[in-house]
Amino acid sequence: IQMSYLEISIIFSYCLLFIAFFSGLSNSKVRQHKLSRSYLRYIGFFLGIETIRLLSEYVFNYRINGIYPFYVILEFLLLLHFLQISIGNSKKLKITFGVFASSFVIVTFILYIFFDPKDINYSKVISHILITIFTVFILLKNLKEVEVVNLFLPIYGALLLYYATSIFLFLLGDQIINININVWSINNLLTCVLYACSIYTFHQLKKS
């Protein structure tokens, strides 16, 4: 059976996600480290969502509807928590991120309930813009602190690449389709980079 590039990228992405999560979960240093534990929840969320989706569609032949807004919200909240820990733990910072999180949840539900459910994609883009901004800030902060070795730099870089590119793909969606480029293949390639960086970072934490 000949598989398409899209199918190969999906399988490869799932395999790397599985390896990344369980390599982190089996590592005591990762579990004990507040920052890596927070990130582990983030990729664990993706593994859980994909497992449920695959089981419901291919085993039980049932397509789950109505969970997309919860998916968008939880993805943002879990990653926001990870980035907030990366930046700092001051009370002022926690309040600021709490305001961002609360506002995002409210806006997302308003778009989904009172407008066209497809408008929730705008909420997703807003979350990706915020994540990109916070990630850039963290990377710039680490450039100023060159004497400190941060093992999470590969993950920050991969997150920036993934979320910044997703904004670009959304803004140029029609043009990309017209020139026959598969957006999902690009998305899967970027997730592969993210999960590979996760595996590398967890391995480095184990050695440290």
Mind explaining what this structure looks like?
This protein has 208 residues and is mostly helical. Helix 1 crosses helix 3 (34-59), helix 4 (68-87) runs parallel beside helix 6 (120-144) and helix 7 (153-171) runs antiparallel to helix 9 (183-207). The protein is built from nine helices and no strands.
Short recap of the structure:
This protein is an all-alpha fold.
What's the helical proportion of residues? over 70%
Mean pLDDT, to the nearest integer, reads: 86
Structural class: mainly alpha
The unreliable regions are none
Q: What is the rounded Rg?
A: 18 Å
User: What is the total tally of β strands?
Assistant: 0
Query: Helix and strand succession?
Result: HHHHHHHHH
**In one word, what is the shape?**
globular
> Strand share of the residues?
under 5%
Reported for the largest beta sheet, the result is: none
Count, helices:
9
Q: How far is the N terminus from the C terminus? A: 44 Å
Top keywords for this entry?
9 helices, 208 residues, single chain, 82% helix, mainly alpha
Map the helices and strands.
Elements: H1 5-25, H2 28-32, H3 34-59, H4 68-87, H5 91-114, H6 120-144, H7 153-171, H8 173-178, H9 183-207
Helix pairs in contact: 1-3, 1-9, 3-4, 4-5, 4-6, 5-6, 6-7, 7-9
